[in-house]
Amino acid sequence: MYSEKVIDHFMNPRNVGQMEDADGIGIEGNPACGDIMKMFIKVKDGMITDAKFLTFGCGSAIATSSMATEMIKGKPVDEARKLTNRQIAEALGGLPPVKMHCSVLAADALKSALEDYERKKAAKTTSAGV
Amino acid sequence: MYSEKVIDHFMNPRNVGQMEDADGIGIEGNPACGDIMKMFIKVKDGMITDAKFLTFGCGSAIATSSMATEMIKGKPVDEARKLTNRQIAEALGGLPPVKMHCSVLAADALKSALEDYERKKAAKTTSAGV
Amino acid sequence: MAKAIYLDHAATTPIHPQVLEAMLPYFSQKFGNSSGVYALAQEAHKAIDEAREKVAQVLCCRPNEIIFTSGGTESDNTAIKGAAFALRKTGNHIITSSVEHHAVLHACSYMEKFGFEVTYLPVDKFGFVRVEDVERAITDRTVLVTIMLANNEIGTIEPISEIARAVKACAGKLDREIVVHTDAVQGGGTLDMDVNKLGVDMLSLSTHKFYGPKGVGVLYLRRGTPFDAQQVGGGQERNRRAGTENTAGIVGTGVALGLAAEHMDSYNEHCRKLRDRLIKGISSRIGGAYLNGHPTRRLANNVNFCFEHLEGESILLSLDLAGVAASSGSACTTGSLEPSHVLTAIGVPANLARGALRLTVGHDNTEEDIDYVLSILPGIVEKLRAMSTTAQLI
Amino acid sequence: MAKAIYLDHAATTPIHPQVLEAMLPYFSQKFGNSSGVYALAQEAHKAIDEAREKVAQVLCCRPNEIIFTSGGTESDNTAIKGAAFALRKTGNHIITSSVEHHAVLHACSYMEKFGFEVTYLPVDKFGFVRVEDVERAITDRTVLVTIMLANNEIGTIEPISEIARAVKACAGKLDREIVVHTDAVQGGGTLDMDVNKLGVDMLSLSTHKFYGPKGVGVLYLRRGTPFDAQQVGGGQERNRRAGTENTAGIVGTGVALGLAAEHMDSYNEHCRKLRDRLIKGISSRIGGAYLNGHPTRRLANNVNFCFEHLEGESILLSLDLAGVAASSGSACTTGSLEPSHVLTAIGVPANLARGALRLTVGHDNTEEDIDYVLSILPGIVEKLRAMSTTAQLI
Ligand SMILES: Cc1ncc(COP(=O)(O)O)c(C=O)c1O
Ligand SMILES: Cc1ncc(COP(=O)(O)O)c(C=O)c1O
């Protein structure tokens, strides 16, 4: 059912855990299946220096979270923003059709975290400007 | 499906053929299945001295005809009249339920032959009495 | 029994050794329920997928248009009920032929209880359905046309692609949906099964007719065909046929159909030779013997004769005692008292129809087998006729 | 995979070697179609008769009250449709429970399309249907009550004989015919199946649940029960279920059920020990683990827990990678996104219901297997909880 890469990322998930001093946090829940993902990013000079996740969900929810965090680490924010759920799924060697929604969730959580980061940055800039 | 005795009477039917000088002839057809049996008897001094049959029908129709003729040969007419289809079936070691109607047909054909004999005898007696 | 010659391949066939071999691992080792998450289950899942692809290849369709069932009867029932109920709001008329297998005929009459009307088309003396008859029967209430690909008793091969084309043309003119189903059970593995050439929306197969196991079959369901699932429950077969999959049977179906397709031409050639030898032999050696069905436009393995003044079962029994397994028509009506509806439909008189003998050859039969049958059959017929009331007296 | 411990016997079981051995001759040698006249066919016919007698013995009924089907799903569908359609003129109300298998639930909703109304009875926190609820639900339109013998997810054993008695009493008072069916698929071979003690008119079994083949099942149909055949065609199974018989599967059913009945007590004893060891071990070693179903009035082989903050599939996957095959509930809803309807019915909150793990033991399992599972499960739960959003944050 799952590719070897999915299994690897499920068994040895990268970047599990909370991040105390995150620059952006995204949380997404899929009401259809009840999965919940939370992603944390650390940004420095427009580069994502660290990413972490927590996930309540099935094997592929965990694997896609893990892969998504891996794929954005060390990438510029601008590039991370372009990451699609298909790319995440492909990087995992594909997902079963019934599990594609997990990759959507991961991409969405990442997007939320990036948006949260932008928002916070904007807020900081504004308050600094005041 | 069939007992050994049925098979024996089917493969080596006793008393097959027509009888030119029969004292009684019975013909019975079962409209339900299209089987047709014809039985011939020869009677002397109230005893059935010979019996023959012709049958268009399935294996058990042939076997019951054969057995019925065997069972009445050498028997007094009065006794032959009491022969039931069950007795014929039993003598054959039983018949499959769907084939019991063949034994009924054989018993009926025999009864017809006996009735024909009685009728002819009565006719002869009457004409002799005139 | 001295001899053992099997001439009832239309009733069922032995499982091909390669098929059985392919099935064996799925009984006690790879026994997982294909719905599970774990490795054992995924093995079963994969095996089922592969079988589906093989079948799809032979039928020239998509794998997800293949539904595995418990046999030809279920496929026929499900096709007819599934399409008719799905189109219930658009009409209530079904067209079929008078020579169909009982699985189709009775499924159609089942629908009569739900307000459907069924037209049972006549056939000509060879058993052919006329395309014009189908066209004429179509009304603005017609939802389904179901005509068999080949007849199980007399081997007649129906002009399905012509029929399907005509139905679709009429449906177009009437601007309505009319589903075309064919019971291809008797053509499985020996006739071209390309569903696009045939032009059908649904097609039924039964695995045990092509050297596979009993209790498993196929329903081809063209994408987009209106269909209400009949066996409901778990989501198996994409919600179109519930129930834990018969993994071994499904694997066997894939392998058996694949083998049949691969060797189709040589198999048909082999059968045709034996068939024609039988037909010629019987015709020349036995008087009062009439071939049922068309001399050439029939299944390569089917021989069906009626013998004057004889009754079918007594011939079968005599043959059986001589080591030859044969049938008087369709397997499931053997032992029934009524003359075959197929023979009646092609105009065989009732009495003659009772003297029917069907010999269907197959893989293991040889010319010697045929010659043996031809050597004993005249004697059997003669002996039975000598006892027959109708031959002697009427 | 280092280990291979199978703990999903409720989903399916491997075929017992003796069962497979009994089946083998019917694939390629004694392959005759049981409807034929000849010896080969009669062999098959006899084998089917013998299997029927064996099954009848276990169910304490007459052989001709046994119908062989293609599995539990067909038995359930046929029972429900067959009885409801037959009694259609007398009423249109069906009573079932909210914890039935989908084969029953969906067959009931299938009937809704034909004007039937279905009452889905609630259950208590252990999953028991209350006899009073059944009684109260009966109306003067009720034609059928179908309640399962034992639940496939949580193992709860329903009080079927009490329910059947109550229904028959109500039916008597109302002077109407109400058929009682039980889906006994999960109790096959491990619970008392005496249909007279149970008091049911119909009962479904699926052979692959008791170490027999997949794709074959049993429908017990009490003599005189109103019933419209659903799969129609040839006259097989006395016109109650058409289709060429799956001889090998039917033979396997007879042998498998016979073996199960013979060894029932020791088998249940074996399973119960392992079950209780699992329940005790999980309860004591893992926090936030809740047993579903009743502690003792459950199938001897069934363990079902919900784990807080976890999602079922990730547990299954972890177990699979450690060589343990398990399920999150019924086989056919694994992979579905909705929480189990059974867990919902017994009041488990949606989030907790998603963390369900069903472990069902069987013949080959040992105490070592159980101890192995108990040794790895706490680590798996811990690891997954460490990743879980809900455990960490909410
Ligand atoms: C033409 C035809 N249709 C349907 C069937 C039914 O197939 P099965 O008996 O395998 O269910 C058969 C064979 O019995 C058949 O010959
Ligand atoms: C309680 C119950 N009923 C019915 C079924 C359906 O049986 P099958 O899948 O063999 O058709 C099952 C198992 O899947 C079951 O557990």
Task: Note down, in words, how this protein is organized.
The complex is a heterotetramer, with 2 copies of chain A (130 residues) and 2 copies of chain C (394 residues). With 130 residues, chain A is of the alpha+beta class. Chain A is 48% helix and 19% strand. Chain A has a 3-stranded antiparallel β-sheet. In chain A, helix 1 packs across helix 2 (59-72), helix 2 packs across helix 5 (100-129) and helix 4 packs across helix 5. Chain C is α/β, with parallel strands linked by helices and 394 residues long. The longest helix of chain C is centred in the last third of the chain and has 22 residues, at 264-285. Chains C and D meet through helix 3, helix 4, helix 5, helix 10 and helix 12 of C and helix 3, helix 4, helix 5, helix 10 and helix 12 of D. Bound molecules: pyridoxal-5'-phosphate (2 copies). One pyridoxal-5'-phosphate sits between chains D (71-73, 76, 101, 103, 148, 152, 183, 185-186, 206, 208, 331) and C (233, 243-244).
Helix content of chain C: 40-55%
How many extended strands of chain A?
A: 3
Largest sheet of chain A: 3 strands, antiparallel
| Biggest β-sheet description of chain C | 7 strands, mixed
**In total, how many beta strands of chain C?**
12
- Radius of gyration of chain A from CA coordinates: 15 Å
The secondary structure category of chain C is alpha/beta
Number of helices of chain A: 5
Helix content of chain A: 40-55%
Mean pLDDT reading of chain C: 95
Principal-axes shape call of chain C: globular
SS strand fraction of chain C: 5-15%
> Which small-molecule species are bound to the chains here?
pyridoxal-5'-phosphate
Oligomeric state of the chains in view: heterotetramer
- Element-by-element helix/strand order of chain A: HEEEHHHH
What integer value in Å does the Rg of chain C equal?
A: 22 Å
Low-confidence stretches of chain A: none
Kindly name the structural category of chain A. alpha+beta
